[in-house]
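Can anyone check this?
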Amino acid sequence: MSFLEEAQSDVPLLSEKHSGIPDFLLEKAREAKVGVFETRSKPNSKRNRLPVIPQGVEEQVFFDALTELGKQLGTQNVERNDKPLRDGWYMEHPNTHDLMTVLDEEELVPSAMVYPSSTEEVQQIVIWANKYHIPIFPISMGRNLGYGGAAPRVRGSVLIDLGRRMSKVLDINPDDYTCLVEPGVSFFALYEAIKAKGYDHLWIDVPDVGGGSVIGNTVDRGVGYTPYGDHWACHAGLEVVLPTGEVIRTGMGALPGNNTWQTFPYGFGPYSDGIFSQSNFGIVTKMGMTLMPNPGGYESFSYTFQKEEDLDQLIEIIRPLRIGNILENVAQLRHVTQSIAVRGKPRSDIYKNDGTIPGDVVHKFAATLPMGDHTWAYYGMSYGPKHIRQYKLDIIDAEFKKVPGARRIDPSTLPPDEYFWARDRIAAGVPELQELRWVNWMPNGAHIAFSPVSPIRGADAMKLYELAKKRHDEFGIDLFPAFCVGLREMHLIVELVYDRADPKRRKAALDCLRHLVDDAAACGYGEYRTHLVLMDQVAGTYNWNDGALMKFHEKLKDALDPNGILAPGRCGIWPKNYRNRGWEMTKSSGENSQGDGVAPP
């Protein structure tokens, strides 16, 4: 497909494809696609580094092994990655590489993609990989954009695309408020499945963009924005294929004939689910989730605050309200620059010079927008019947207005396409698409995230904000900070947006982020999640007691995956046949992600 054909093709519907868009978001998706391609100048790759073969496997042995696997799964379900790399966009994303690459796009690529249709076929692939010592890398849907997308950590791995043929909602229990899903079920799909059954008393919790896999997001410990926003805390029961091919079910799923797999997550004995989150210890093929009851009413609200230094007082106000559940959901406090960018228009519309965009330019433009000029905007939601909501909203209003210049936004004054309404729907469990429009801020827009965790304290918020601002100024990157406040902690999510077709801007983004990780760790702040190329560095910051935690992870890896075939290097966990061979990526690695071979079996 040519670039023009790709740009003009329609967005696939959920009724046509597991990764498609629901009907109610089709027009918004069409508009989003136009915005993406209007700012794109990067052509599809013609490939310069073929064939892609995993290290440690002879080329002919590898091709013969693929042929053998094709006979087991069907030749149409085993595909070599030897065609031009087509980037697509969020709703038509590739599984051949990272759509939002921060390295040379041919660096982190699989050698082949395979498509199982069942847990049994996943087992067959794992047994095959052990037979030939071929690294495999599972994805649910590959929409983990900003963290590596569909790319494997080890170049030449065989990608297991679970979602394409394992995309069923296996159960929705309207009495227990639970569901059971396969890896290819997106938040879009789960929402539509619940609506199709008429279960208006059930809500789901959704992340900022709803096209990702429920399983993929949850096992990577992603978040949403209702009171059920901690997705990992809301899961209940896993089915997992281990790296040697055995299948286990966790919690009550281990009891034959059980009737509480999705209602009681623990079962009996050690709680093993945690080792399958942010790890490479198993492939999750089924997962249960708890669903939120319809609260009987809801009301979004937003406040704006004028000064950067208001952040300190504001976070101090937020903490007791959040812990006391007056502020009920994982809300966002975001900077005005990102609020401008989420309109989906390029930076060049308001500023064409190099370096970070000046504050006076930002505030002058913000003054022309429906929410007016400000520095910080808080987006929240109150739940329950009107009298209960009003009680909480009155407390919030009194507290927030202690900040001089605080202003509550009147939603009736906002146009239908204002970002406020996207946050309103997300906080009501309705999946959205609008969030990634800020990627259009740069041509060929891509993003990578700095995401440290801190206490809910004003001093910590200011320290992290100033730290991020200093490094962004140093590398000439506009700062997009958003604080997401949990019950006892907060995440600062800083999205670094760059032109992925420009090697200098890619390098600036990666260098900036590497400095930020070390700066934050030196102050006691750790990342909760990171991109593939920073996993070694981030894992290395969790080094208390001479790296005791990583040594423990390595013992688990060696016991569960003796041949080291499953997602080597994911989350910084390397099997013994890769260790001490230069596979770990550091500040000095540059564009190279590869080590010096693999130890023979």
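Reply from J.R.: I decoded it. The mean pLDDT is 96.
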